[in-house]
């Protein structure tokens, strides 16, 4: 499995100087169960996912909308814990091409200890880390320890982030910069705010690091729109989580495979 940086470098060089836009699906670990999660990761990997974001279920997911909150609640109620997620990943990641980016809030990291946490997720094959409630001012130590274990810490820029802070985040973020396209929590929306387009241009003037846009993208048309704005990656979460949760696990797995392929075809 490549690192996050290697994945973007490969996409940048894949079309004779014309970079290919990356697709980053998000699913919640343990919903409906970890066996299905393991299958889902492999299906996404085969159907166009360039990187995959995997959410660790958490009891107070402040950045997540109702679809992902409900998935996390179901996973926790069925007993999904971080150790279970890492054990599953250790079995699956050797068979994946797409790097795994773990999405977790800071409390589980604090509870386990930063060094132990980074060591354990690296051993499970994780290549990237997103911590939505980690302030920039407190990110230096996390970045230092994670980097020592080969893990890229991806920082977020919101529509309300001031320009000087965007510059500081762009300098510190690793692998890519995660641009939140809307003010608020995750979730499917009928339109993507045009503010994201302006922010893309603004960030592009500050850094040559890849920029991924997420929160609110729910169909191939919106994915194409974001790609045309100049995004290096399209991040789609709630639309995958909802499809995986609907019907039987087999039906959910087929639905996310088809959806992933349609999104990748739209942005390729």
TrEMBL record:
Report if keyword Lyase is assigned: yes
Q: Supply the InterPro entries for this chain.
A: Aldolase_TIM, RibuloseP-bd_barrel, Trp_synthase_alpha_AS, Trp_synthase_suA
Q: What is the superkingdom listed in this entry's lineage?
A: Bacteria
The reaction(s) annotated as catalysed by this protein in its Swiss-Prot or TrEMBL entry are: (1S,2R)-1-C-(indol-3-yl)glycerol 3-phosphate + L-serine = D-glyceraldehyde 3-phosphate + L-tryptophan + H2O
Q: List the Pfam families.
A: Trp_syntA
What family is reported? Belongs to the TrpA family.
Q: Which NCBIfam families match?
A: trpA (TIGR00262)
Q: What is this protein called?
A: Tryptophan synthase alpha chain
Q: Which organism is it from?
A: Planktothricoides raciborskii FACHB-1370
Which gene specifies this protein's sequence? trpA
